[in-house]
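Dear H.,

Thanks for agreeing to be a second pair of eyes. The structure we're designing against is below in token form, covering all 181 positions.
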């Protein structure tokens, strides 16, 4: 009789643990799916944001090539005499390059290398405008300077949040490869 009771207890414990494991797995899976859906929505918003920022930058590129006074009147108002045609074209090419990278990232947002490069375009833009405003004093804080500072800051924060989404699939791939071996 004791063996029967012990066996029954072992079976009960086994079934209980197995049931808890199944229920726990079910809740974890639901959480991951829910989290995945939220992050997927966030990544779609981030893609749209990157595309919008890219299109606006392309407009700024055209503006820089058409009329260099745009830069002296809107951005570099502290020392407008430093703005010339060559500097405007250089700014236009730099903006076009950043715009192209951001558009490519919006299209292929899960490309880790492209994601990092895009993030750096915003860091460089933020650094450029902050240094022009506070170190070189060529771009006093006006609406023309605040706009790129806000766009770069919001983009950096958004891309750092979104980085979780592009980092997870790589970890899952590594885990799957380990299971195969």
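And this is the sequence the design step returned. I haven't edited it by hand at all.
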């Amino acid at each position: 009789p004791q063996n029967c009771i012990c066996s029954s207890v072992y079976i009960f414990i086994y079934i209980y643990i197995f049931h808890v494991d199944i229920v726990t797995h079910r809740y974890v899976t639901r959480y991951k799916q829910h989290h995945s859906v939220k992050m997927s929505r966030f990544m779609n918003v981030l893609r749209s944001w990157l595309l919008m920022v890219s299109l606006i930058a392309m407009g700024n590129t055209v503006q820089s090539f058409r009329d260099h006074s745009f830069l002296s009147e809107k951005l570099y108002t502290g020392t407008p005499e430093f703005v010339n045609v060559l500097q405007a074209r250089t700014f236009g090419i730099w903006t076009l390059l950043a715009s192209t990278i951001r558009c490519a990232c919006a299209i292929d947002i899960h490309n880790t290398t492209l994601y990092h490069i895009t993030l750096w375009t915003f860091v460089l833009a933020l650094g450029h405008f902050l240094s022009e405003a506070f170190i070189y004093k060529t771009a006093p804080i006006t609406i023309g300077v605040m706009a790129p500072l806000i766009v770069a800051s919001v983009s950096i924060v958004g891309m750092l949040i979104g980085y979780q989404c592009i980092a997870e699939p790589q970890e899952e791939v590594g885990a799957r490869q380990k299971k195969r071996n």
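Two observations from my side: Residues 1-6 have pLDDT under 50 and may be disordered. Residues 2-66 form the longest helix (65 residues).

Warmly,
E.
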